Amino acid sequence: MDLFRKRLISGVTGGRKATSLLRAGLFAAAIALPACAFLALPSITAAAKDAAVKGADAPIVGAPKRLRLLTTQQYINTIQYFFGPDIKIDVKFSPLARTDGLLVSGSSIAGVSDAQIEIYQKVANIVSTQVLAPERRETLIPCKPKNDKAADNACAAKFLGDVSGYLYRAPLSKDRLANLVSDAGKAADQLKDFYAGLQLTLEGVLMSPNVLFVAETEEADPKRPGQMRLDGYSLASRLSLFLWNAAPDATLRQAAAKGQLDNEKTRAKIVDMMLASPRLEAGVRSFFDDMFGFDDFETLAKDAMAYPYFLGEAAGDAREQTLRTVVDQLLTKNRDYRDLYTTRETFISPALAIIYGVPTTPGWRAIEFPPESHRTGILTQVSFLALHSHPGRSSATLRGKALRELLLCQKVPPPPANVDFSIVNNPNSDYKTARDRLTAHRANPVCAGCHKITDPMGLALENFDGAGQYRTEEKGTPIDPTGSLDGKDFANVDGLTVALRDNTSLPTCLVRRAFSYSTGGSLPLTAEPALVELNKSFAAEGYRLRGLLKAIALNPAFSAVAEPAPKKAAPEKSASVQPTKVVAANP
Amino acid sequence: MNKQQTKTWRPSMASRMVIAGVALATVGGTSVVRADDTAPPGRSIGYAFYAIEWGITQTKDTKEECPQGVAEQLGPREQYKIQFPEDGTKRKFVDTQMLREADTWFPKAEKDQFQFRQAAGKTAFGLDLDGKVKPTDFTSPEGKPGVDNQLFRVIGCIYNYRVGGSLQNFDQIYQKKMGINRLIIELTDVDSLVNDDDVTLTTYRGRDPLVTDATGNSFQPGGTQRIDTRWGKDFIHSSKGKIVNGVLMTQPMDFNNPHEVAYQDAAYDWMRDARFEVKLTPDGAQGVIGGYADIEAFHRSRNRTWSTHHLSYGQQSSGSVYRELLKAADGFPDPKTGQNTAISAAYTVKLVQVRILRPQKEIADMNAKPATKQFADSSTAK
Prior knowledge:
Helix content of chain A: 40-55%
Order of helices and strands of chain B: HHEHHHHEEEEEEEEHHHEEH
Strand order of the largest sheet of chain A: 8-1-14
Number of helices of chain B: 10
Helix content of chain B: 10-25%
Distance between the termini of chain A: 22 Å
Largest interface: A-B, 35 and 37 residues
Strand content of chain B: 15-25%
Number of domains of chain B: 1
Radius of gyration of chain B: 23 Å
Largest sheet of chain B: 8 strands, antiparallel, barrel
Distance between the termini of chain B: 14 Å
Number of helices of chain A: 28
Strand content of chain A: 5-15%
Number of strands of chain A: 14
Oligomer: heterodimer
Shape of chain A: globular
């Protein structure tokens, strides 16, 4: 039983004030779930809708304030934006636990092991050594010491003040800065090298919890008495990590210092500036890389005998292809988000050209697949097809599951522990095609429930093998690519992509993921009114990503701080929330 | 642009079986199966060479083709010892090493003072180039008589050219590795890869690396080769041909094989009246190219691209080989002297399917604007 169902049942049955009728009804609904019906994440409830239309009078409920760990890419971006892209950082921090569909949400529940601290120390040493290298001092150190073989407190204070303010994402206290300058001076005198003293101190700064952890702080919201909001610097960090995937720059920190982020008009100007920055691409790439589960590419392996055309570069290129497509469609061309799933425009590399069966030139090149290619949208790109397959064969089930979970924010329960996979796993099976094998597999009623909710759309992708190459046959037998998605039948993958594009859960899932991502953690149920508002504005603006990002960044719930969740759900809240929408499994 | 040109071509399993089955049938058999669904998109298909070596019959114990053994061949070091024995005589550099150097680069067509071991036997790779079955001809490994391959007689017992010889080894490594050696062919006007009585074959030099597959042991079909029309004009030749039961046979044409090894000077071998006889599949091709190797080009190519020590290790005396080539030459007589200037020869070749791009129009189109026409497979637009 997944966490959400547990919460659902405990919430419903634990409410002391809930009427017995309601309790009984909801509990019955919960336990009446088919064994393998998928669960939609919390849908828009009547209470949420009600709250959304009440406007400013209603309490603004955002996410709780977070304590979260910088991700690897946030750390790298932060360093390189400040010290320059030539600072080489080849590191991977410990993997985060994917939580509610996002890795970044795992950053707010992550701990730090001894091994991880060693990695932080090594990286800090590598970075500080490069920053203080003789060839970079001229550009990265804002002053010259009077004697480069001894301490120079004035010069050290200038450098450490700038750097630490940026890395801490907030101004340093005078005492803290004085301590750092003192440390640098002692080291310089002992080592008889001013720059070595700075390097050791910078290494220490880079390992500071203030740098590695983003600890949000709150303050009373003067516009909404009794409610709390993020303080300026915390809000600057949240904005910057959301849109740029890096620490806030000087402009953003200055705006925080002047209180400009608390003012709707000045905040809007700053958000516009951030959306116009080239750094937005890094932010958007990071978000979609997370939402699409592309961290799995790091462990993706294909059977070289089964797929000799899946070259060594193919996995990395497939990930890059989809991210390039996202940036091109949603940022450069400002297209409708839903069209990402039907567009034939994309980019290819030589390694991918072999899988797609087209000629190309060295490097990346923009292309448009012809209509008869069946390459429509990112579902038909190698990234989705290869990532959600087995090493040596395709998987209609994995693809269907990924479609529901990653793109529609639905939850497909895992298979029961005692399931018999022998029919689908037997390479010498008499069943020629995946459809044949899955049909036989579904003869087992234990299996049928789950597969009914994943396979009808996954089988429409069977024209693509486990490496993403188009095919019309499997073991000499023609492939039947017909399928259905939530009641819409189609003849092949072209129909699937259109059905997905028109599925109402597609944009609402993006809104949910983006808002959750922006706050750096899972959303409380109380954030539903904000989602209602964001869904509405997203639709009104034609499902444009830039508009959604701006709407999130300017939404009061983005900066509002939710009260800590009560240990036991209040009965009134439980009663007013319908936390799940149970969708009947496809027949 | 028609649909055929824009679709991604992967033959169906049934067509592959037809191609494979028919390709295995004897050339010249009675099958007249015409499988139009085997026609490549745009009626054209490209292949890149990944192995090309002089056709030499090699038995395990060498007794058939080199009854006296390969080790008996006299290379530069052995000849030097005979020519300048260590008998206490004082000799000058100019009279010894320089003399040998001059013979390597500017050999005289006079009787060789050293014994040379020619290859013997009855079997050799190659084609019947003159339509006659002569006493000096060979029989192909498949049993076809009248095979003209006198080059085999000259180089068949030289260790350098045999499996394990450094030339054979490095030639094959650098054929794959060095871009300058990238040789490609394009078949156009192809209505069927099984039977088509009128196709056109054109050779080019390509500009792109070969693509190794995920196993690292084979070459992956489907890579792209851009034609080198700027510096590769010497390699562009064309001929008509036909496909019979999956085997391509072409009419005589010039064939230049780029040749560079070990980062030394580049050269190429020139085969005149070259004819292809290769089995075709959608993924590759394999067979022989028979023709007359130009002797001067052969001699120059070996000297320019090979170091002295490799010639010595491989028991290959350049001057002696040159004189043997002239003796065994059987084609293209000099109009003035009557001396044949070329020698019948054969390459054994392996090729992998590639998609061909011409630089002028197609690439300009591709870079100008993404469009469906970009996906023309090995476009036939001339």
